[in-house]
Predict the 3D structure of the following.
Amino acid sequence: MARPSAESQRPGRPTTPTHTRRSDALLSAVRSAGRVVFVSHVNPDPDSLGSMAGLAHMTRTALGTPAILTQDGVIGRAENRSMIETLGLDLVPTSQVQCRPDDAVVMVDSQPGTGRHTCAFAARPTVVVDHHITPGKLDGVAVTDIRPELGACCTMVTQYLSEQRMIPPKALATALFYGIETEVSGYPREATPADDDALSHLYPLADHDALARIRNAPLPARHLEALSLALTTAVTCDKLLFAWVNPLRQPDQAAEVVDFLIRTEGIEWAICGGVCGDKVILSARAAMANANAGELLRQVVGNLGTAGGHHRRAGGAVAIPPGTDSHLLRDELYARVRREFHLSGPTVPFLSGL
Ligand SMILES: [Mn+2]
């Protein structure tokens, strides 16, 4: 790649698009659009939110094109709601988005055809920027940037902004920082030097009081209720813990449950299934590197629904057929977990000794 001239390296000075840079390829693909519609996976997390906000800033600043950030599903997690409120993120529910012929759809932190979208316009985006190992249907997508080796999609977006010599404003830097931080949390870290470079770049730009407020958002009683249900229903087999929460008040609570349970001594896998309306929401965490959690959960779910994710973290959903007793579905899913994880030991209640 040609070295950029000193002129083009000046902050704020647009560089000549060569399309050899990923950010230029994205800008080129949406240049003629009347509006850029950003979309992410259902029940978006901080990495999705930060990525949409970062790329919207880039396209607005570079092209002057209006952009909207969409919200598919619900955002229930207290920290994520605090992130939206504290940083003033403006989200439009996907159900309220009327797509126009001159819209360009940019998908972040997900891929089309993975069962993680409820809106029609997510089926055929113009651009896909993602870091999941779960393969999507990318035929006809003009620009794709899929880097599963990276810990966070916000890392990719931070690189895009740096390529364009754009310094993110404080709220955006905070959103990107929190997006990366939440994705690479836990041990072992699913992070590369590129993720740490992005965190270092963003650290002096971020609002650390806002970050503290987000990280310590007050937890509603329903959070503790879900943990309580998970603890009382949990069973263990070998080094796997399986919890069932019925009802699950909000879909992203399944992730909150496993984020807590994976810290259990002696446990290498935590899986939670939660009955949320007419679906079972699944979330899985592994305590070891290269665990291939996304693929394993996909094998468990099979033809019952959809699943995918990363090495240490995965999620999925299974529709509950009308008239089906959710307990039967729980038993079926647990039987599949035993099979796919090659569990051979007895199933025992987690809290039996207390
Ligand atoms: Mn992500």
